[in-house]
Structures are given as C-alpha cells and as structure tokens.
Amino acid sequence: MAKTPLQFRHNGRDVALFVDGGTNLLVVLREMLGDVTPKFGCGQGGCGACTVLIDGDAHLSCLTLAEAVEGRAVETLDGIKSGPTLHPLQRAFADGFAAQCGYCTPGMLMAAKALLDKIPQPSREQVVEAISGNICRCTGYEPIINAVLAAAASLRASA
Amino acid sequence: MTRHRGRGMAAINYPIGMNLGGDPSQALVHSNPSGKFTVALSSIDLGQGMKSVTRQICAETLGVPVEDVYVDTADSDTGPHCMGSFASRGTHRVGNAVMAAAREARGVMMEAAAEELEVNASDLETDGRGNIHVKGAPHRSISVKDVAIAAQFRQGKTISGRGIFLVPLSDVDPETGEMSPATCYAHACLVAEVEVDDETGEVGVIRMDSAYELGRALNPRLVEQQLVGGAWMGMSHALYETTEPYYPDPKQGPRDFVEYLMPGPGDICPHDIAVLERPAPDGPFGGKGPGEMCANPVLPAIANAIFNAVGVRIDELPITPERVLRAIKAQGGARPQTRR
C-alpha cells in the first residue's frame, strides 16, 4: 500500500513520517513516535482514554485519521509539564487523590486542559461537561472534578 | 407524570479476606548498606494503595522514616507468595505479613546497633527519624545507615526479616455446627435518597449519607478515596451496569463497551461520609480494610429507596427504567410509601 507523508507538530516539536492510509492518530503517537501517554481504551470513541489536543481542542485520537493532523499542532500529556515541574492540573490530581488505577488519567488531564485553556475559571457544571466523554472506573469522578477546580484556582492565584 | 422522592437504608457486615482459615500472604523485608529498606511482595497495587499502606506499616514497625522504605511488588514469579488483591484482604493479610517481617528485621537491626554501641539491644530504641539510641541517653546514638554499613561490611549480617500471615482453620462445633467464618468484620450503613419518574421508570440518586466502620484508617486519604469511588461503583451496579441484555431478545443488548452503560460525571450525587474507627485486635495497627464493602450497602439502599418512592420491590439488578416501569404498571400505578 502506498504510504502518505505526514508532518505535524507533536508537543512543540516538528515530526515527519510516512503512514499507511487509514492509520489513526493514536497508533502514530504510540507506535511510531513512542509517546504512550494517550491510552488505548476501547478504540471506539467510548471511553476518552486516548484524548489529545489538536490545535487546542480535545479530540479522540483513536477516531482521528492521522492524515487529518497534517500541518496541525498535537498536544499530549507527555508535553504538558515544563521540565521537572508538573502542570498545575497534574499537581492538583496528585494532591487531590484524583487517580487510582490511573488509566483514564491522561485523557482526563487533556480534556481538563482543553477546558482551562479556554475557560480559566470554569463552573462545576462546565468541568463536568468537559470530562463527560471520559470514563473512570475507580474514583467516582468527584475527586477529579474537585482537582480540576483546584487547578483552576491555583492558576488564578499564580496569574 | 410525577417524580416521586424516596429514601432507603441498608446496613452491612463485611468479613475481611477469605474465610474459614488459610488465606496466607508472605512478605520479605531487607535493608541495603545505605540503610534503606525494601519490602518484597507479590501483592498487587491496582490503585487501591497497597504500596502506600504496606510502606507505612513497615516504616512504623521498623521505627524508620517512611521515606526510607521502598515497596517492590515487581514479580509474582520471584517474589514471596500472596493469594492476591481481592476480598478486601490487602491491608489486613499483607499488612500483617509485612509487620511480622519488619519486626524480625528490626530485631536484627537492633542487635547490630547494640554491637556497634557496645550495649544490650534491649536498652536501645529508634527515634523514627533514622537513628537508634540508648533509652534515656539520646547522645549514645548511631544512624540506621551506619548500622546497615556495619552489618554488611563488618559484622557479616543481613538486616532482614520474613513474614507470613495465615488464618488458623476454624473448627466446627460438633453440637451446634457453629464456626468462626472470619477473624474480623467491617461495617457500613448507608441512606440513599432517590427520585423515581413514574412515566419513564427512570431513577436518579439525589444524595447519599453513609457511615463506614473499617478498623483504624491507616491512611485516611486513601480510605476516603476508596469510599467515594466504591460508593459510586455501587450506584453504577444498582442502576446501570450489566453484561446481560436489557430486553428479552439478546440482539438488543449491549455488544461492546461503547454500549455498556456506566454513569458519567454528570450522574453523581452529593455523598456525605463518616468514617468510624474501631481497631481490629488482629489487624496491623488495627486496620481492617475498606475494599469491596464500600460498594455493597449502596445497592440494597437504592432498592429500598425505590420501594419507598413508588412502592415497587425490584429484586433484579440493575434496576433499569424498564424494570421499574413494568413493576409500576403491574401494581396499577405508583404507590408512594410513608417517608421516615
């Protein structure tokens, strides 16, 4: 099968590779670029574990054709901390015990980041809406919602 | 159409671990020459906090800072044996094994320190900050690190300990047939408030109030995390989740996880939790285990609340809108019960 050349920005770094037609973004990120922070959950867009940001919007990478991100900026959990310093969302998740098994956590963090980048001071309802496509088995969501609100508060304090 | 409010209650008695004897877990503890300790376990931490709790138990028993203890659950092929992470047994069974191992390791550590300080080991105590000193004479002191170096390079001793916890088999009383199924029990009581739509059969959980008695909460934040998440899972099992079809024909049932129903972040309700601590005599520092029982009282409490709201008794799970609606129709309409 013919390969298609693909270039995009991955966490601020330009990448260029050849992909088979029909390859989804999750496969490109995990298997070709070695960024395993987006998780494979259901492969059907039902769980949100593979959530990444494309030009700042939350997308399900398992349902995104790799070729669709040509020339665009893709952001994953791997790129949100700066050096050894955790992103305020990561700090808030850790402090608030917002993860147990941790499988949903990368997707939750990216969905939450997409929200806070656009709406720095969201209401509780806006947080619930933002993570409503992400399934969590362990936490009961409450600690996650609280952690996102706490991160928003800490961003406000540091702004 | 009317939305009916109802309140239901349930109380449970939950045995910790597998019953009637056996159910062993092993632990090994050793120090390396830097004075840091490793706990080797085959018990699995799947997010419930096994590593954190056994680390605390080991540090407390050894008398060293928690930062100086590392828990390695790497490999069940080569690690000491464990029955597994289930039945709410981790804190109690594995914790007891770690405690036994740490106690033995502490004995060797104190002997080694005694040799260095030229005193009797029974005259020594740990300060919990990484030092060992003569009781009443803190200046006659040696660091755990220096003891570990001396044990390794001068005395030729391993500072290590073995631990196992095994529940003795409970004998059957030949007269009464009575036996002791478990060594300790956790308890919980939960009140659920629901709203039932008599036109659609839909059930919404409005709030939950609960009290959980789980021995000493060795790590209160982890306990809270278990209780919040576990109660949500109970609510999810009561009203949503099933691998079985919802309708008589399996073709209309869920085929994969996309169609498998689970409540999302918008379906949660306020939940007020009280944690009661009645330390278990045979638990590590009194701990029992929150584990599974945090989900258990939610299901009967919700079923009772639905009865209180519309007067129908549903004895099949999950309590789907179809089941509620059929039951309401069968009795000729909603019959709200007295609210207590």
Note the main sheet of chain A. 5 strands, mixed
Tally the structural domains of chain A. Answer: 2
Which CATH class of the largest domain in chain A applies here?
Answer: Alpha Beta
Please estimate the helix content of chain A. 25-40%
Class derived from helix and strand content of chain B: alpha+beta
Would you identify the CATH architecture of the largest domain in chain B? 2-Layer Sandwich
Gross morphology of chain A:
globular
- Radius of gyration of chain A from CA coordinates: 16 Å
**CA radius of gyration of chain B:** 26 Å
Give me the CATH architecture of the largest domain in chain A, please: Roll
Count the beta strands of chain A.
5
Number of strands of chain B: 11
Largest interface: A-B, 27 and 22 residues
Query: Considering DSSP H and I runs of 4 or more, what fraction of the residues of chain B is helical?
Result: 25-40%
> How far is the first residue's CA from the last residue's CA of chain B?
24 Å
In percent, how much strand structure appears in the residues of chain A? 15-25%
The arrangement of helices and strands of chain B along the chain is EEEHEHEEEHEEEHEHH
Mean pLDDT of chain A: 96
Biggest sheet, spatial arrangement of strands of chain B: 1-9-10-11
Describe the main β-sheet of chain B briefly: 4 strands, mixed
Domain 2Fe-2S ferredoxin-type (chain A): 4-80
Protein name (chain A): (2Fe-2S)-binding protein
Keywords (chain A): 2Fe-2S, Iron, Iron-sulfur, Metal-binding, Oxidoreductase
